[in-house]
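job 3f2a | input accepted
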Amino acid sequence: QGKFTLLRDTRTDGSFLVHHFLSFYLRAGCKVCFVALLQSFSHYNIVAQKLGVSLTAAKERGQLVFLEGLRSCLDLLFGEEEQSGQPSPLQFISTSNLKSLFDFVRTSLTPAESESWKGPVLLVDDLSVLLSLGATPVAVLDFIHYCRVVVCSQLKGNIVVLVHSSEDSEDEENKLIVNSMCHHSNLILWVEGLATGFCKDVHGEIKIIKRVSLESTEQDLIQIYQYKIQDKNVTFFARGLSAAVL
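job 3f2a | predicted structure (246 res):
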């Protein structure tokens, strides 16, 4: 409880981790607010069904609050009014202020008296899209800071955020976001593509960094594995020990 997990990918797609955490927290009985800026609801639902979870059923019973960023952006840009009469969570596209998005998260995860979910979880896929939509790095960092105060500190919940990073990119704003997130995370799952290129038996490498240094003077714990993504699961193994090699 109260932990901030950063999912970071470089030279590959780390979205399989988002699907894992989404299905994991729903099965665990947690209340989940999913800010999905990258894909449509149907995409996440199809993958979740392969993992044995129905997002539609979770929405109907009030366990999942889903913000479909792609549709909300179009509604906002083409002037369609919100049916509920509430301001759009993506109002920052015209105001460069992420307060409406934060209010959406806070309202979604603040427990009602009748609810008995185990704990609130905020899931964001992916944070880099906010920069592409016109938000400033400072506004994005402020948004994450306020979410941490409410979700992690006050509600004793968890936050899981995905960011894309590129070592040779000249996008200074995205680099600032990635570095700041790394400094404040309790756990970092860093997925990288193989430096040697494509391989059908090894899809990439994952570095698991447990930030012990946040709470003490000890060094961070780092574990490195390679992985292969299959249809319904992911297999992990030590470097150089894939089935193709053995």
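job 3f2a | Residues 3 and 158 are 5 Å apart (CA to CA).
job 3f2a | closed
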